[in-house]
């Protein structure tokens, strides 16, 4: 029994071709699809209709957590758990808690940003159906591919194929899941 | 040797974007008249408030000097990094730099006051100054804290630093302007190399001379004080002022139509990121200064902040609120707005934020200068006073002169450095 269909993979030979093809696929209303290019193509994100990443939200939460952790740690150790006068200063002041809070803000923001990037990109991902294609290595070298996934609600095999050929695909192959 | 220089084909939209220069000259003259009225009003202030108005004049002048030096730094930073995207922005800073010799001229009255009436502004210009007038005892000459610093804090050093400073800055401004404008005509790459040479000389020179001048002009108003952060504090504020000015000019040119087809979102984003970066830098420097003094708790240092919070009778004064306003207005508000990507691209929000940052830079200068004007108890005069009026007239007066110089230069030069080797990179800038 043949494996279920993962999607369609269409080959393009130049950056302008895949750029315009991406615009057509975007305008056709597809959501679950991607472009594979050997190098970053400027403006392709716009042609694909990608919106701004959600990573900054992770960063903000990380930063706020770090700042709060720093402030509360200094408060807990100096003014709550074991009260101690150091250098004639009050038990707690946001002033001398600031350097540690600032460091933890940066540290936690960095962690949250990396983690957010991994989560949103579904990383680590050791297997991807496009790896079944023997030609995919050329997508890392000198060719461009558009991959439309079968799980996209708008996906119909014949219409998707027609769309890709109309967009100027040089070769269209079906991918197994 | 002009092979590296890019050329814009004639008949492109850029050529038609040049404004008629006659209306610009009329606007320049209007700015000069407003400036002269402002300066005359400050002159009235000297007659009414005397010493306090002289302090106000120093405040307003240092504000514009800071912005001009920030612009000078940004031009040099552009050259030292061989930057690409900021090429279109650099031309407007070059136009602005034409005000530097005029700022030097406007500083002359303050130098004259140090000779004619020593001790009016800088107490140490008069060794016999009676410290009882500002809540101390003895004279400046008997003060060991002055004596140990007298090698720097004297009238000769004040004159030398100011003259060398303005001389050097004006020379640098002249060189950068001359080479950039000449390149528009002949497209020679040698102009870029010459600018790079002047940058290599100019960056350390300006860093040192600006630090020295701001120490003598502003920090030494309270000559007991120590702070190793002072030069870099002024640098941070000056760059923020200049970046805000650059954003205002950029959007003025955008809404006037000149920058259509030139300015893109990536310029706005990078410019906004620089403003954001220097917001954080200013906060880092200013906090460090406060924090080190707070932790060390040495009377020769802490008095500077005590003066700006509490009077000798234990009553809080309104400078404390100014300090808090600086914390939230100069750090928190710009930080929380500029951090957003869409804000940095917004042609509605960026001019507002820029005007606000420039305004708070002025408040920062006021906070540094005005409390040093003490009464006989050694307390600062209140923030809300007639002095604010004289600061306002000075800001308008000196600002008018700066805008006049800018518009005069702007009307005579190309909108962008059309034959700069990096101009195509700047016009097609993409991150």
Give your account of this protein's structure:
The complex is a heterodimer of chains A (177) and B (431). Helix content of chain A is 46%, strand content 14%. With 177 residues, chain A is α+β, with helices and mostly antiparallel strands. Chain A has a 4-stranded antiparallel beta sheet with strand order 2-3-1-4. The mean pLDDT of chain A is 92. Helix content of chain B is 69%, strand content 0%. Chain B is mainly α. Chain B has one domain (36-416). Chains A and B meet through α4 of A and α10 of B.
Question: Topology, please?
Answer:
The complex is a heterodimer of chains A (177) and B (431).
Chain A: E1 5-12, H1 15-27, E2 33-36, H2 44-47, H3 55-81, H4 94-120, E3 144-149, H5 157-166, E4 171-176
Antiparallel strand pairs in A: 1-3, 1-4, 2-3
Helix pairs in contact in A: 3-4
Chain B: H1 13-16, H2 21-49, H3 51-80, H4 87-96, H5 100-116, H6 144-147, H7 155-186, H8 190-217, H9 230-256, H10 265-296, H11 299-307, H12 319-338, H13 341-345, H14 349-369, H15 387-412, H16 423-427
Distance between the termini of chain B: 30 Å
- Class of secondary structure makeup of chain B: mainly alpha
Structural class of chain A: alpha+beta
Helicity range of chain A = 40-55%
Overall domain count of chain B: 1
What is the number of independent domains of chain A?
A: 2
Strand content of chain A: 5-15%
Share of helix of chain B, binned: 55-70%
- Uncertain runs of chain A are none
Helical region count of chain B?
16
Main beta-sheet strand count, sense and barrel state of chain A? 4 strands, antiparallel
Most strands sheet of chain B: none
H/E topology pattern of chain B: HHHHHHHHHHHHHHHH
Quaternary structure = heterodimer
Give me the count of strands of chain B: 0
The largest chain-to-chain contact, stated as pair and per-chain residue counts, equals: A-B, 11 and 8 residues
- General shape of chain A: elongated
Features:
heterodimer, A: 177 residues, alpha+beta, 2 domains, elongated, B: 431 residues, mainly alpha, 16 helices, disordered N terminus
């Amino acid at each position: 029994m043949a494996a279920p269909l993962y999607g369609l993979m269409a080959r393009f030979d130049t950056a302008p071709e895949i750029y315009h093809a991406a615009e057509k696929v975007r305008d056709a209303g597809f959501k679950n699809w991607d472009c594979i290019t050997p190098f970053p193509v400027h403006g392709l994100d716009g042609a694909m209709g990608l919106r701004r990443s959600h990573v900054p939200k992770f960063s903000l939460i990380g930063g706020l957590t770090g700042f709060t952790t720093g402030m509360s740690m200094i408060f807990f150790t100096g003014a709550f758990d074991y009260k101690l006068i150091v250098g004639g200063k009050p038990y707690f002041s946001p002033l001398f808690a600031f350097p540690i809070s600032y460091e933890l803000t940066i540290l936690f923001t960095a962690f949250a940003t990396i983690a957010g990037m991994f989560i949103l990109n579904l990383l680590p991902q050791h297997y991807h159906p496009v790896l079944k294609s023997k030609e995919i290595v050329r997508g890392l070298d000198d060719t461009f591919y558009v991959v439309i996934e079968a799980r996209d609600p708008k996906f119909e095999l014949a219409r998707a194929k027609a769309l890709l050929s109309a967009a100027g695909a040089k070769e269209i192959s079906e991918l197994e899941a | 040797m002009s092979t590296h220089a890019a050329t814009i084909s004639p008949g492109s939209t850029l050529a038609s974007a040049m404004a008629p220069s006659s209306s610009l000259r009329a606007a320049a003259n209007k700015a000069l008249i407003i400036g002269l009225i402002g300066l005359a009003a400050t002159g009235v202030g000297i007659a009414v408030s005397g010493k306090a108005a002289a302090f106000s004049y120093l405040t307003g002048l240092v504000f514009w000097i800071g912005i001009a030096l920030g612009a000078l730094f940004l031009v040099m930073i552009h050259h030292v990094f061989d930057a690409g995207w900021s090429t279109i922005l650099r031309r407007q800073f070059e136009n602005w730099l034409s005000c530097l010799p005029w700022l030097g001229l406007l500083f002359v009255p303050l130098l004259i006051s140090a000779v004619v009436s020593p001790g009016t502004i800088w107490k140490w210009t008069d060794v016999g100054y009676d410290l009882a007038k500002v809540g101390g005892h003895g004279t400046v000459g008997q003060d060991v804290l002055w004596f140990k610093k007298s090698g720097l804090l004297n009238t000769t050093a004040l004159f030398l630093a100011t003259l060398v400073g303005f001389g050097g800055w004006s020379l640098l401004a002249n060189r950068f302007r001359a080479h950039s404008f000449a390149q528009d005509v002949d497209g020679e790459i040698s102009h870029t190399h010459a600018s790079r040479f002047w940058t290599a000389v100019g960056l350390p020179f300006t860093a040192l001379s600006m630090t020295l001048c701001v120490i003598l002009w502003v920090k030494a108003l309270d000559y007991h004080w120590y702070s190793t952060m002072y030069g870099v504090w002024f640098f941070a504020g000056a760059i923020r002022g200049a970046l805000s000015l650059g954003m205002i000019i950029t959007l003025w040119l955008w809404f006037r139509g000149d920058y259509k087809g030139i300015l893109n979102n990536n310029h706005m984003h990078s410019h906004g990121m620089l403003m954001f970066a220097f917001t954080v830098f200013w906060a880092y420097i200013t906090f460090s200064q406060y924090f080190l003094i707070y932790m060390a708790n040495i009377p020769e240092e802490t008095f500077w902040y005590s003066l700006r919070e509490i009077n000798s009778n234990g009553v809080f004064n309104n400078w404390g609120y100014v300090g808090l306003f600086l914390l939230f207005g100069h750090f928190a508000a710009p930080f929380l707005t500029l951090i957003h990507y869409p804000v940095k691209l917004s042609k509605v929000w960026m001019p507002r934020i820029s005007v606000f940052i420039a305004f708070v830079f002025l408040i920062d200068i006021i906070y540094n200068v005005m409390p040093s004007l003490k009464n006989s108890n050694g307390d600062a005069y209140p923030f809300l006073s007639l002095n604010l009026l004289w600061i306002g007239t000075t800001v308008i007066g000196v600002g008018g002169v700066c805008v006049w110089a800018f518009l005069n230069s702007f009307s005579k030069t190309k909108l962008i450095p059309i034959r700069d080797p990096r101009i195509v990179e700047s016009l097609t800038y993409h991150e």
